[in-house]
Amino acid sequence: MLKDSGHLLERDAEFANRHGYSKHKPALPLYTVADAESAIRHIEAVDFRKAFSPIDGVTAQMFPAGHILGAAMIRLNQGETSILFSGDLGRPDDPIMLEPEARLLADYLVVESTYGNRKHDDVDPEVSLTETVTATVKRGGTVIVPAFAVGRAQSLLYYLHRLKKKKALPDVPIFLDSPMAVDASEIFCRHLGDHKLAAGECRELCATAHYVRGAEESKALDRQAMPSIIISASGMATGGRILHHLKALASDERNTILLTGFQASGTRGAQLLAGSRQLSIHGQVVPVNASIEAMHMLSAHADADEIIRWLTPGGHRPRQTFVVHGEVSASDTLCHRIRTELSWEAQAPEYAETFNL
């Protein structure tokens, strides 16, 4: 995945230099394929629950966090003191991923708060997806889906496969246009014990979409006359092939842009969610006439109630809980709930703030 990401960054930089829209002269990738390959040589795989020592005097264990394939929470122990980092927490009822490991005992706890001030919609994703696709196809349009390559793309394929099997969707082609998402989907089928899908289900899920690998085939999607569903990274429309699809298709009122997860402040996805009718892409102002729909219930992050439920069992109260990885309002809201509902010591650290444990 690192190499795929490095390749995308190189392509984005090359495209920016060729078209001259970057303020940097020349535009450079954040990291390259060579950088990724160098970093990968220093990565060592460790099984869940196996104790290891990342530095002298400290032991660590990783446990399933249920967010995406391989997502882990980590507990560090030094002498008599322990600290647990939740990492990105998954949801207890996700149709694909196993639920997060129960909260482990630790003296200190660092917990994420991406959705610390929100509860996910309880609308059935299949109903919402059917309505959006059907309405768009009826207009003769295409559904453009910015999606995270690992996790969200596979969740979408899962629901689309179920709907196609029930013949609940119009018969339109589905394209997965993200080399990283293609690779991730194939990895799912090689790690059957790490999710809920059986081998046959995984193969069927992966066969739901046509995999787009080459750049020319990706460009051709924007020129086709027939309605379709295009799933492409990145999930917040900050880079990747989705930008080319948005630039070509967002101005057409027949189309729909379907947002399927958290959209961080300042991203194009957040602008669309807020109702913006134009986007800046590759130095151009692109009008947005397409319909904008959102399916927040597809998020792979636990919502506020689910985080509280994960924290609650066991009766063990950490000495201190640090609420992180959320926008200020989300972190502060979750922090308040932890204090009032669980009667724990909790705080949301500010940037670069330090603590002695």
Automatic annotation (TrEMBL):
Keywords: Hydrolase. The keyword Coiled coil does not apply. It holds the Pfam family RMMBL. InterPro entries: Beta_Casp, MBL, RibonucZ/Hydroxyglut_hydro, RMMBL. SMART domains: Beta-Casp. Residues 153-272 form the Beta-Casp domain. It comes from the Bacteria. The keyword Hydrolase applies. This is MBL fold metallo-hydrolase.
